[in-house]
Amino acid sequence: MATDYKWNSSSSGIWGDAGNWSIIDENGTESPASDWPETGDCAKFDSEVTITDSVSAEKIVAESGLVFKSDLSAAEIEIKGGNLSVGGNFSWSGKVSVSGDVEVSGSASANAADLTSGGNIHFGKKYEGTNPSNIECAGEFKISGNGIADGDDSFLLRGNLSAKSIVIEGNKKTSFLGGCSSIITTETQTYGGNVLVNSDITIECSSVTFEKNLVSHSKDSKKDVTITGDCVFKGTVGSEVSAQNNEKIKNLSVSGSVTAYGDFYTSGTLTFGKEVFLAADDIVFSSENNISFKGGIKGNANASGNGTVYLTTVTPYDIEIGGSVTDVNNVVFNGNVVLNSSVSAAKDIVFNSNAVLNSNISAK
Fold first, then answer.
1. Helix (H) and strand (E) counts for the chain?
2. Is 171 helix (H, G, I), strand (E, B) or coil?
3. pTM greater than the 0.90 cutoff
4. In the predicted model, is pLDDT for residue 303 greater than 80?
5. Burial 106-134 (b: 16+ CB within 10 A, else e)
6. Cβ atoms < 10 Å from Cβ of 62
């Protein structure tokens, strides 16, 4: 039978000490406890408390903040007026609601359970949730990846995430898996390592930076990525060479401006809503469907020779450029082309298929 316990000791103590607890009966009457809250029980706190030992609990309700110096496992947590701090690992299997910040030094894991914070959320090592596990954060969502090897996962999301901003630190992989469809921030998003998608996702933000590659998980299940803000792609999007966990994106659509350092490979459409800035010498845009540059392409004036732009698609699909192409050395079109604005190259413009020229082109 579930029992309600109330912390009646000092501001710091051991969870597993009956002397720190009283029992509350159905009439609200308190009496000394002979044990402490365990599975099925509810633990209540009226003031801020620091717990010094590891805790496995069913339900925790606190009027103020709580500090757990070691590991914490709970089915449900409600902190009404403060922060939650966990010095070890944190796992939960029911709804966790914290009015303030959530700070976890170790790893965090959610078993088909949501996490809501009225402040910032910071996981020191990694986070993984089973489907569905959603996260709602009024402030910054950050994972530091401490102790995680470069290239390994520090963030595995099987649910949706909304926050003010997102920072995944270091060269640690992010995996957007089944159950994940939207990653929404009012400000910026930064992913320090590779980003793997195994679910069609929409990223809403003011801007997003991918420090490494953005790829699909499986050859037989390539995924769509839709981005509503400005983008900086410092690695490749998709992969030219097929491999598990390193596949092409299906359809990529970016409504904001793009700064590109690497190549783009999609099995579906490739759509850019605003100007694409080339930050490297030679960049490939390759699609097995239509490619559309609604805002044009601008080369990198600081790159040696400004490089070459390779635009490749397959019949019967088109490469459509709605804005001007400037500050590039060479432009190579491998596919049907529709040009609605001027294209200017310092050296050569090469058409290896049909071209519809609705504006001026110039090359030296």
1. 0, 48
2. coil
3. yes
4. no
5. bbbbbeebbbbbbbbbbbbbbbbbbeebb
6. 23
Q: How far apart, in whole angstroms, are the C-alpha atoms of residue 146 and residue 122? A: 12
Nearest to 180, CA basis, from 144, 217, 206, 208: 217
Give the three-state DSSP class for 150.
coil
pLDDT at 160 over 70: yes
Q: If we measure between CA atoms, which residue out of 325, 327, 320 comes closest to residue 300?
A: 327
Identity of residue 362 = S
Q: Which of 29, 27, 28, 73 is nearest to 54 (CA)?
A: 73
d(CA 200, CA 223): 5
Calculate the average pLDDT of the chain. Answer: 94
Q: Is 191 exposed, middle or buried (0-12, 13-18, 19+ CB in 10 A)?
A: buried
Nearest one of 172, 169, 232, 177 to 205, comparing CA atoms: 232
Cα Rg of the chain, angstroms: 26
Distances (CA, A) of 128 to 98, 133, 174, 189: 19, 9, 10, 19
Per-residue pLDDT, averaged over 227-237, amounts to 97
**DSSP codes, 325-358:** EEEESEEEEESEEEE-S-EEESS-EEESS-EEES
Q: Can you tell me the distance from the alpha carbon of 67 to that of 45, in angstroms, rounded to the nearest whole number?
A: 12
Give yes or no for a cis peptide into 316 (omega within 30° of 0): yes
Indicate if the pLDDT at residue 301 is higher than 60: no
Q: Are 305 and 329 in contact (CB under 8 A)?
A: yes
Q: What is the pLDDT, as a whole number, of residue 61? A: 98
Give the model's pLDDT for residue 364: 64
